[in-house]
Amino acid sequence: MTGPHHLETAPSSSPAGEASPSDPLVTVLAVHHRLSRRWMAVMGILATVTVLLILLCLRVGSQPVDLIDMVHTFSHIIVPDRSQTDVEIGETILLYVRLPRVLLALLIGASLAVVGVALQALLRNPLADPYVLGISSGSALGASLALSIGVGHSLVQQATVPFWAFVGGIAAMAVVYRIALSGGRLPVHTLLLTGIIINAVLSAVILFVTSILDPTKLFRMMSWLMGNVPSPDFATLGILAAYAGVGILLLLRQAGNLNLLALGEESAMTLGVDVERVKKTVFVLAALLTGAAVSVSGMIGFVGMVVPHMLRMTIGADHRFLLPASALIGGCFLMISDTMARTLFAPSEIPVGIVTALIGGPIFIGLLMTHTARMNV
Amino acid sequence: MKRRQQGILTGMPFMTNLTSRTFIDDTGRKLYVATPPTRIASLAPSVTEMLFALGADEQVVAVTDFCDYPPGAGRKPKLGSTKPNIETLVALKADLILAPRAFIDSTVIAKLDSLKIPTYILEAKTIEDILSHLHTIGRIVDRTPAATRLVAEMRNRIQAVKQRTALLSRPRVFYVLNSEPLMTVGPGSFIHQLLELAGGSNIGGITGQPYPRISIEDVLKQNPDVLIFPAGPSEGIPEQEQRQWQRWSTLNAVRDKRIYRIDSVLMDRPGPRIVDGLELLANYLHPSAWPPSSPAAQ
To answer: Which of A39, A136, B219, B281 lies at a 20 to 30 A Cα distance from B297?
Structure first.
């Protein structure tokens, strides 16, 4: 993927893809047309790659499946095969274990990458990632408490760990928002600092819980914190898909505003953006997506940090491209990482966060080196 | 010639000294205990259980927050739940500290050594280790007859389990150590030994790791006949978890409803109650080999 770089200037030439009344209509339409053709091409390629990668990830595992068997299995969903009473084990594995897991990895990766892009734009800080605002620590604390004191408590036992993780994430979001809000405004520096401090405080509380926990229960918490992509049933997957899908789409709609925000808050304001509203919207959406992602899969690092930067280097900084491309590439990245996590040391697994860092790091460094080399030429 | 003779002669008194009241712990440290200790600090539930089982409860002056068995252990002064504070240990004026290796830092051991507080470190890797620990602790606290009796009884019960299950086919068993992420036990873990000893074939064995994460794909492929869920005292298998497993209707264990809970303390404490855990496991794995009066499955 070595796309042209001229598009990096696109946001200033045609911000938000909307026509401002002073521009000659013809130019605007021409630019718009060219952009949308390019958009279609890029997204078409990425979507195709994604589908191919889904098929690839479905093939590998404890029970390798070839393509014909896969088609055969999927045909059974549409036309249930009543002739065989005993469901074949390979079919169960492919349909009910691997498929939901691969799709969930795609969803989580997409959410994390999109949130990463949005927060880097919102905070105007390249180091921002989904975990910078303290929401993930809130989720982790919720999960830790549920795992440690929850055992034996009927109230806590009824709901699951992801539920309490989500509650923790939302609570952290509310706290960060309240603290950072001053006079109806949400200054990004205050927001960033609040997030970092809340992160530190909550991490200390998590460590405290860890230190007083029964050593025989400690591993549960540690392994939860290390990150893991579960294999949900289809109902759960459906709910998660709807939730993440709506969240990602709402963030995608902010692409134009984020482009303008990149020029600075004053410039964006003079161009007619309700800056405070955009900031609050992006913050809340990012927090809700992060909270959900962490609740489901624990802390999976690197996706929300590396994927946005990789794409910025290859397809440019226009958020109308960057956001959807990050969703697809972030999804693919986590999907491949999780596939490796479950197959590399089969029959045992390793935490997926280790894989994302060990793969993402070198790829990122490689890209960075070729990028700077090209810049110097 | 002459020199060698001398060597034997000087070595002899040393040897006799070693065998009387000197003990070597599992880290190879030598501990000389002239008289049976009267103020013992136990740094783990398993150690507390061993001391109480040997009738040395009077001598125990402090236990951890997690020492909940037998009931008398809960009434002893507490050392807290974190790793022991060195000042607390010194203030106890304990004349013996008993700790499993995993529960104490090597820096703390070094400090205790320099303060001349007798510390004995235990590391149980096998069931045989537990028996030998009971024996040694019995000798240290001067309860050798009780220890001999207890060890003989435990050995008999283990032997009985072995005999009853020896000729039976070994059901495939999966131990659900944790469900999200899915983890189990494998070779090198204590529970793996118990599962195999109880006449089962542990599915986690294929991983070759003591506490591996494992994919549900592999569990489905291996198709366990029995699922075992460890749980805290007076708690069942969480409903949520049961529902999760009901999804996998192809599993023999789900189809035949052979899903059992077991008190996790019977499995993960290398103490005298390990044999209770073993018998319970054997019972779940081979219900036909036990009389119906045995503890019922869930």
So the answer is: B219
